[in-house]
């Protein structure tokens, strides 16, 4: 087989055969296909799409490129959640302990932020001592002893996706439904979870800008999961404004701890509880209310044990950025818009995110939103506080917020937090 023939076939709008797909993924993983050839194929896929059959085979080949984890020794059913990425999306942090407190095992393999979307591992690494990298045996140990583990995927899990995702990130080929669906689902299926709830984000701060695109992505992923015997459900949720008030790393951990203590912003609590119900349902666990686990301290207890089991000190003060800059409301009225993308880019430029994979992130950098769309504001009141280690970062962050918020007179027409459910 020849890489150029495969590229030409997709370039000319043909479906790839099973043999072509299996060969391409295997050869690319082994280093037998050049990065520029894979980049060209990824662009052809982005432009010409793939049928459901092709996406299914592509996903299966990516799973087969590495190892599969096995949780059959656990005494509890496994259930997991995956978000397609957003701004202020710290839901995994309270969600995993809540679901574990209700009786499931939550093996949450998570990623790092790149660009304007945050990464769960970057957030948790702001907890002094906390370790993202665990061996498979350590992961199973934490899962068995606490009910939840949030860690980095080992290098043996879907290595084809690891290479391809890094390539897509620098070749403008991330925003492709077949490539996103197969990337996410190959990792989740290889991880070996029994049930999966997908949080497919919609809006300016998400990869999918429209409900139609998000629905297509969700349907594709649900079909792949179901075909592989994973009970899969998807929620389409709003990402036109940031989730909660905190956007960054340590600031999002602090907000998650507030939620685990029974407080926190309404939208973060609502989404955590809804996703927890879906995860428990998919795992066949009945008679437990996740809202109780937040009220009675049992989720907080799992959180503390989970953080400690991964080397973190749940009582240690979280890092804070040295410098702050507050933006005040230019007039009185109603905050009609707070754009998720603008706030995400601001947090990224303040140091919370990275421009290249190897860059370090600042634990304390980020944005605190004092008002949320729909809130009444008074001229001069704080609207956003920017946190950075270096004040030189404020100018570019302020640039990204220009036009990112609006004050008007009437309540805004916002996307509902939970737009739809697919199964
Ligand atoms: N998250 C992934 O894991 N892969 C993608 O392609 C996009 C988001």
Automatic annotation (TrEMBL):
Q: Which InterPro entries would you find in this protein's record? A: Glycosyl_Trfase_fam3 (IPR000312), Glycosyl_Trfase_fam3_N_dom (IPR017459), Glycosyl_Trfase_fam3_N_dom_sf (IPR036320), Nuc_phospho_transferase (IPR035902), PYNP-like_C_sf (IPR036566), PYNP_C (IPR013102), Pyrmidine_PPas_bac/euk (IPR018090), Pyrmidine_PPase_CS (IPR017872)
Q: Please, which domain of life does this record's source organism belong to?
A: Bacteria
Q: Which Pfam families match?
A: Glycos_trans_3N, Glycos_transf_3, PYNP_C
GO cellular component, alphabetical, reads: cytosol
Biological process (GO), any one: pyrimidine nucleoside metabolic process
**Gene Ontology terms, MF aspect:** 1,4-alpha-oligoglucan phosphorylase activity; thymidine phosphorylase activity
Tell me its EC number(s), please.
Answer: 2.4.2.4
| Keywords annotated in UniProt | Glycosyltransferase, Transferase
**Domain Pyrimidine nucleoside phosphorylase C-terminal, first and last residues per copy:** 334-408
Subunit structure, as described in the record: Homodimer.
State the family it belongs to. Answer: Belongs to the thymidine/pyrimidine-nucleoside phosphorylase family.
| Name of this protein | Thymidine phosphorylase
Supply the source organism's classification.
Answer: Bacteria, Bacillati, Actinomycetota, Actinomycetes, Streptosporangiales
């Amino acid at each position: 087989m020849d890489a150029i023939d495969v590229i030409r076939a997709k370039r000319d709008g043909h479906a790839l055969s099973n043999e072509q797909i299996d060969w391409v993924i295997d050869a690319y993983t082994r280093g037998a296909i050049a990065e520029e050839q894979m980049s060209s194929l990824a662009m052809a896929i982005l432009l010409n799409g793939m049928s459901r059959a092709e996406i299914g085979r592509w996903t299966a080949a990516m799973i087969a490129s590495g190892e599969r984890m096995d949780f059959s020794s656990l005494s509890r059913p496994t259930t997991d959640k995956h978000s397609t990425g957003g701004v202020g999306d710290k839901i995994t942090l309270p969600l995993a302990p809540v679901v574990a407190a209700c009786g499931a095992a939550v093996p949450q393999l998570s990623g790092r932020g790149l660009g304007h979307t945050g990464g769960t591992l970057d957030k948790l690494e702001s907890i002094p001592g906390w370790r993202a990298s665990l061996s498979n045996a350590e992961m199973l140990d934490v899962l068995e002893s606490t009910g939840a583990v949030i860690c980095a995927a080992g290098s043996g899990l879907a290595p084809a996706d690891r290479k391809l995702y890094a390539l897509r990130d620098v070749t403008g080929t991330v925003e492709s439904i077949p490539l996103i669906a197969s990337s996410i689902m190959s990792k989740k299926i290889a991880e070996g979870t029994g049930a999966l709830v997908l949080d497919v984000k919609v809006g300016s701060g998400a990869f999918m800008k429209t409900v139609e695109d998000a629905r297509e992505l969700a349907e594709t992923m649900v079909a792949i999961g179901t075909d592989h015997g994973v009970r899969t459900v998807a929620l389409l949720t709003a990402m036109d404004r940031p989730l909660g008030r905190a956007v960054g790393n340590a600031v999002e951990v602090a907000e998650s701890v507030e939620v685990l203590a029974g407080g926190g912003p309404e939208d973060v609590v609502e989404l955590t509880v809804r996703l927890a119900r879906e995860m428990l349902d998919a795992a066949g666990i009945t008679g437990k209310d996740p809202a109780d686990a937040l009220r009675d301290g049992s989720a907080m207890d799992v959180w503390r044990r989970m953080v400690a089991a991964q080397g973190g000190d749940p009582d240690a003060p979280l890092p804070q950025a040295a410098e702050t800059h507050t933006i005040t409301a230019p007039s009185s009225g109603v905050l009609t818009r707070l754009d998720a993308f603008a706030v995400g880019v601001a947090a990224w430029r303040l140091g919370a995110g990275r421009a290249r994979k190897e860059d370090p992130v600042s634990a304390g950098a980020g944005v605190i939103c004092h008002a949320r769309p729909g809130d009444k504001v008074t001229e001069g009141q704080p609207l956003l506080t920017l946190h950075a280690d270096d004040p030189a970062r404020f100018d570019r962050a302020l640039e990204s917020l220009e036009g990112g918020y609006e004050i008007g007179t009437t309540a805004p027409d916002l996307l509902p937090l939970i737009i739809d459910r697919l199964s």
